[in-house]
Amino acid sequence: MNNQSAPYIRTEARVSGMMMDMLLASLVLGIFSFVTYGPRPLYIMLLSCITAVLCELVCCVIGRRPLRMVLDGTAAITGLTIGLLMSPMVDAWVPMVGAAFAIVVVKAPFGGTGRNVFNPAAAGVALLTYCFPSQMFTYPAIESGVQLPLTMTIEPGTVVTEVSLAAQLQNHAIPPVDRMNILLGNFTGPIGATAFLILLTLACYLMVRRTISPWVVIPYFATCALLAWVFPLSSMNPANSFLLQLGSGYILFAGVFLINDPVTAPRFWLGRLCYGILSAGMVMLMQRHGNYEAGTCFAILLMNAFAPIIDRWSWHGWYALTRRLRTRKEVPAYE
Amino acid sequence: MNKPQMRREFWRGTTLFVENAVTNNIVLIQALGLCPIIGASTTLQNGVVLTVCTAVVLLPLSLLMAFFGHRLPKWLRPAVYVMVASLLLVGTSFVLSRHISSPLYAELHHFIPLIAVNMLYARTVGFSSIAHPVSTVVDALGSTVGFGAVICAISALREVLAFGTLWNQPVDTSVTLPQTTAPFTAFILLGLMAATLQWCRLRVSAFFHRKEEDEE
Amino acid sequence: MRGIEDVTPASVRLPVATDDTVFPLAQLPPDAPIRCGEELCRMDDMPVLSSVCGKVEGTLMIHHPLYGPLQCADILRDGTDEVPLPIVTEEELTPDAIIELAREAAVYDELDGIPLWEKLSHWQVTEEDLTPLHSVLVADGTANDVYGSAPWAVLKEDARMVLDGLRLAAKAIRFTRYHIATMLPKRRRRALKKAVGRAYVYTVGDEYPVTVYADKSMETYRIGVQACLALAQAVREGKRHTHTVVTVAGDALPAPHNLRVPFGTNIAALLTACQAQSEHHIVLGDAMVGIPCTDPHTPLLPGMTTVLAMSPRRVRTPGPCIGCGRCAEACHVGLLPYEIVRRSENMHYERLQHLYPSDCDGCGVCSYVCPAGRDVAQEVLEAGQTKGTMFLNWGEDEYE
Fold it and tell me: Which of C288, C320, C372 sits opposite A7 (nearest CB)?
């Protein structure tokens, strides 16, 4: 009967609740993409999600971890995140490869949920970016309102393709700017990463629900915006530069999904602040000078490696400062 | 030297060898000599060449240090061994480029000089300056075998995956991934191999632990 | 909230010896008549008083969850006789006399169960000492818990007497500043200020755990509200400290109660008085840091102001730490509970000390907020006690 220990009351917040919030956020993005491209984005997300969950199941069986750890939803979110960063006309096996890599190589060998050093979704997308750039960065034209077929692969030539915004920026071309279209996400890009306003709304929702920490998100967005504003692309109006740079690539998406993965981000508020600022700088650098039109994932993987150090050092600095203040009024201890 | 003494010496040498080669593998457990493995292990030929280079440098060097190392002051030993290693490597690369294969040398000429400052040698030489010549040779052999096994395994795997060949002979593979020539593949493979070895070590030691408990 | 209800149990069980002191059986023969306030034995220079008037039935050994093994005497109640203390006048009350009186009246501080006279004599300063200039004696009436409300009830009943006791205690240690710290709702706070005077009430923030009981520049010395009341009663009315007010609450009870009971009352009797449901488990202390109690016949001893009856819940299997960082946000000391737990799990004991796990005061907030349902506080406390040298030596043996 007395198998409980103090405290005898516990908070109502659960890890599964946090994961449900993230699933909800990915579904919102999926539905947005459904409106534009038809059911194929959802199909891609579903396949990648199923692959991730199955791989996690297998790894749990092999690693003799309790199977309920599959049900906490982290693997499903990894899969969905990878799906959201694909082009809508990508071959369906590509995100499956990415999801399998993310779980089998990046997550499971380190000990599964809570122990992975690198964000599995970012690692999966980075692998796909490196190995299949042509698959990743070929986007269907958005004006045609094309209904993509629900097949594993899409025959080349059957779909009108278009150069994405990020690729245009990378080639120093100045795309025609329609601010309304960018804010509404009505431009060429990955499934879930174009919806400017929706992503910002999701960030606010998740912050209110305390699923993602404002100590990461706000410094990240602020630094990105500042950098885009202060260093505009060649002879561009700063406001346009801000919209274009943040709207293209994975920058906004990373701010909501990738850098907020609590396992791979620092956990102390000061460390989170530093992490947000540094990863924003790294992401903007990769975006501007990287080899690929979307180098965000590489930047985030790089920052993941530094996250534990940032966390520890920031805490040590903070505690050394405040410890003296705290212990100043010490009453002679009664023995 | 009587017979039991010889037997003991033999077992001690074997332990030293097996430790460096397998159980306390110089690359996978001690994490030494990673640079050539990450950078150059793209084909099996490269792997074998680097192994041979290592052997050619390591054996004479450790013998030399076993005989003269303890006479040198401590601070001079690293300088001496880097110099001797460089000299040996100059000879090795000369032989490689003139008499064996010039294109192979062209591919590896970045990595062969780097071997001179490899931590593999630092460890071996540090050991050999204080140990008996025979055990230093055994130790150097063990290190070479441990290093060679890992680099050959990784380079063979990467060659098959990337080009569909093994020692330039085509192998029947349906998919090739040219991207596996990138260094990150070697990192991942090394990590997985290290994890597997650690896991085996744990299993084996747990087995013997249980056996001891049973006997008690 | 209701006022305090008096409960008179049929029998009480009081400690007469700890396991390492020899119990003088000859002094307490069975069926010996004993009056309320009479000395049963002396423990650590302090009399243990009988809290009821009655007969000694016998003695037995119990294992108390807070105090460990204790030799206890069962006293069957059959009267209301009481031994009064001599009443002293204000002029006779030198600081040392007050401390001596606190000892003879067996006044315990209910915050931690330490005898009040020990605390006071420990804190007492000489007349030339300047400590009182920047220190303050605080009567802690905060009830810093979800369920506990005993100090509030005491303050509601007789706040003037509490202030009087606090004044005496301050006089005993030669402090000039003293006040009652509370976190009452606004209306009750106004009533309290009216009763004792605005200057003597300090309002603390509505937070858990309370760490600031006075202005930040002051050193704070804390005693309990009930200890103040008992001291005042001992001096003014000649009553010894034989009764305590205890909150009996918990989600297995239909309504929480504040009960005034003699020391040594069975917890089972308290729960029966509050109509506890059949299935519950008992917690001594508040819901955050309380100690589970298996034996319902455990006696109520000084240092306990809350008894909880919690209905059994399904125990959650703790999941892996996902690193949300809420424990670090919640920790009022500013530690990193997740990192302490991780290092302690990975047996990196040598690197634990850099995280100051010994600064933890065990408030239990980190366990409360953990969304994965882990017992963070428990592990941090254990890490604070681990020195790790033993394990370090073990680790080195491997390479030999």
Answer: C288
Query: Cβ separation of B192 and A109 shorter than 8 Å?
Result: yes
**Burial, C398: exposed, middle or buried (Cβ in 10 Å; 0-12, 13-18, 19+)?**
exposed
Out of A105, A109, A130, the one facing B179 most closely (by C-beta) is A130
**Domain assignment of residue C272, given as a range:** 4-83+240-310
User: Which of these three, C210, C237, C264, is where a domain ends?
Assistant: C237
pLDDT over threshold 80, residue C24 = no
C144 in a domain, yes or no? yes
What pLDDT, in 10s, does the model give residues C86-99?
Answer: 888 877 788 999 99
Flag whether C379 is in a domain. yes
Query: In this complex, which chains have at least 3 CB pairs below 8 Å with chain A?
Result: B, C
Query: Looking at per-residue confidence, does A26 or C360 come out higher?
Result: A26
Write the residue in C315, C328, C371 that is nearest to A268 by C-beta: C328
What ranges do the domains of chain B cover?
Answer: 21-215
| Cβ–Cβ < 8 Å for C219, C209 | no
pLDDT digits (tens, 9 = 90+) for C243-287: 899 988 888 888 888 888 888 888 888 888 888 777 788 888 888
Q: How far apart are CA C393 and CA C390, in angstroms?
A: 5
Average pLDDT estimate for C99-119: 89
Residue C294 in domain:
yes
DSSP string over A29-72: HHHHHHHHH-SHHHHHHHHHHHHHHHHHHHHHHHHT--GGGGGG
CATH code of C115's domain: 3.40.50.11540
What class has domain A15-322?
A: mainly alpha
Phi then psi dihedrals of residue C23, to 5 deg: -85, 120
Chain B contacts in chain A segment 96-155 (CB below 8 A): 105, 109, 130-131
* Confidence bin at A314 (pLDDT 50/70/90): very high
Q: How many CB pairs under 8 A join A and B?
A: 10
Give how far B11 is from chain A: nearest CA, Å: 36
Domain count, chain C: 3
Pick from B177, B184, B203 the residue to mutate for testing the A interface (most A CBs within 10 Å): B184
Mean pLDDT computed over C36-51:
79
